[in-house]
Design a protein that fits this description.
6-stranded antiparallel beta sheet; 2 domains; FAD/NAD(P)-binding domain; 7-stranded mixed beta sheet; alpha/beta; globular; 527 residues
């Protein structure tokens, strides 16, 4: 490619999309590279019956062995693991869930939009573990304030320090009776249950909120189907000067040139790219003088269906809409005011009601099982636990010595295991959730504390962490590499810790903040 752009942006999801929105509208000439195609919903989305699909909706065996979210109805969205392999050690399953398309994972995100607090940003000050972020809540609050109205986040303010309030479309919708009973049971124990805080709208994706305005500025060139292989470096200055990429279909190689490079390809893809970007100046991966690139991988752990209960009054088909339906969110309450003895940090509970419990929850068979399933239809109440996983040095990714993807690019070997702290937290969440259901007058029919494999939450974080000390981190508080001042990493890989909150809103805030910092530094001649 002949033209040299002001800024090269790698990735088009929440991180890359927000960077493009800020920079292109601010006057910087930007080139965006994304490994996937542009999705045309009007032309490509169709309705099909299950019997019209080759595998009757179950999907081609072996295509997505680690993507439990995928189905044959949306198989074209998810990254094919045969084309995009990775590895992990026996007994350390990791479910790496990827979307390669313009808009990234915002095409399918749950739209949960929670702010982090200083319980996360200053985590070491609270419990002595890990490292504080080099930013505080007050640094990000102005950016949260601007993003929530853009994404039309709905919710209810609660005035809690561990879950800061935002600028919401007020959700004053009425709770069903069973949800109100559960919320009352929480309140009696000093626990807050609230409405979900969720970006509203049909899609609320980068591709329909951020990228259109960036493109309308005339300063963004969007290049789909561009599989980036490595970030290139000027050997004289040590600065990033672009990236080498391959056309996804033809596999032809190109070099995109730019004065500033922003990486927002999602946590593990960004770190994989940086580890693969080796040179004489950076033999262990670009910007990796600290040796921490790839280290401190973490996420939020999930226990799906940690408690399953039925509402007695809804049995026998008596659960109308006034009694059943709806759900909510139990805010973290552990290790806020009082410290737990057997674990640090905390968890949140996501609850819902009005479903029919599956057959596996009843120790019956034959006619007795069918009768019980009919009797409990529509009476179900479930809890899912979302807990904070500690960032640990030993949880890491590295480049596999021999395995490569379809484009000849070395892939990742991933190593993450949950610690005793997470297991203790999951057990406590199960016990508390079951007690809250009993307090609400529900009948608990199942409970467990078995966590889903790491990665399944699609909230992978860390591996290119922020920090005040260049010897123990890759980025400074502006998402700028300590070693390469014109290289920025703006996605979840920059997180120092993550709390229990879904990370997308914070990724958007960090990326907007970094983008405006870049504009400011360009004006000053520092970039």
């Amino acid at each position: 490619m002949k033209e040299t752009y002001d800024v090269l942006i790698i990735g088009s999801g929440a991180a890359g999309g927000m960077a493009a929105w800020a920079l292109a509208r601010g006057g910087a000439k930007c080139l965006m590279l994304d490994a996937g195609p542009l999705v045309d919903y009007d032309k490509q989305r169709v309705m099909k019956a299950v019997y019209d699909l080759p595998y009757r909706g179950f999907g081609q065996p072996g295509r997505f062995p680690h993507v439990v979210q995928a189905s044959e109805f949306d198989a074209n969205l998810w990254a094919d693991e045969k084309q995009n392999p990775y590895s992990y050690s026996p007994g350390e399953q990791y479910n790496w869930v990827r979307i390669r398309a313009i808009g990234g994972k915002t095409l399918r995100w749950g739209r949960q939009s929670w702010r982090l607090s200083d319980y996360e940003f200053k985590c070491k000050d609270h419990d002595g573990h890990g490292e504080n972020w080099p930013v505080s809540y007050s640094d990000l609050a102005p950016f949260y304030d601007r993003i929530e109205p853009m994404f039309k986040v709905s919710g209810r303010s609660e005035g809690l320090p561990q879950l800061p309030d935002g600028i919401y479309l007020n959700d004053d919708s009425r709770d069903s009776t069973c949800v109100q009973r559960f919320s009352d049971a929480c309140k009696k124990r000093g626990i807050t249950a609230t409405k979900m805080r969720r970006a509203t709208g049909t899609l609320a994706a980068s591709s329909n909120i951020l990228l259109p305005e960036a493109l309308e500025s005339g300063n963004l060139t969007l290049t789909p189907n561009a599989v980036v292989r490595e970030i290139t470096v000027d050997p004289k200055t040590g600065l990033a000067n672009g990236a080498i990429f391959l056309d996804r279909r033809s596999k032809r190689v190109y070099h995109a040139k730019a004065g500033i490079v922003i990486v927002g390809a999602s946590t593990l893809e960004s770190t994989r790219l940086m580890l693969n970007s080796k040179s004489r100046l950076f033999p262990n991966g670009i910007a990796n003088s600290s040796g921490t690139l790839g280290r401190y991988l973490f996420d939020q752990f999930y226990v799906k269906g940690s408690v399953i209960a039925t509402v007695p009054e809804a049995r026998g088909g008596k659960g109308g809409r006034g009694l059943m339906g709806g759900g909510g969110y139990v805010v973290r309450f552990r290790n806020v005011k009082e410290k737990q003895k057997n674990f640090i940090r905390g968890y949140a509970l996501d609850f819902g009601s009005g479903f029919s419990p599956a057959a596996r929850y009843f120790p019956l068979y034959g006619e007795a099982l069918l009768n019980e399933m009919n009797e409990t239809a529509g009476s179900g109440f479930s809890i899912t636990t979302m807990g904070e996983a500690l960032p640990l040095y030993e949880n890491h990714v590295r480049i596999h010595p021999t395995l490569k993807d379809e484009w000849g690019i070395p892939v990742l070997h991933i190593s993450q295991k949950y610690s005793a702290n997470e297991h203790a937290m999951a057990k406590d969440a199960m016990e508390v959730g079951a007690q809250l259901c009993q307090d609400a007058g529900f009948q608990v029919i199942a409970q467990h504390s078995q966590m889903a494999p790491p990665g399944e939450s699609i909230h992978e974080l860390g591996t290119c962490r922020m920090g005040a000390n260049p010897k123990t981190s890759v980025l400074n508080g502006w998402n700028q590499c300590h070693d390469v001042k014109n290289l920025f990493v703006v996605d979840g890989s920059s997180f120092t810790c993550g709390g229990v909150q879904n990370p997308t809103l914070t990724i958007l805030a960090l990326s907007l903040r970094a983008g405006e910092y870049i504009l400011e530094q360009r004006k000053k001649g520092n970039l």
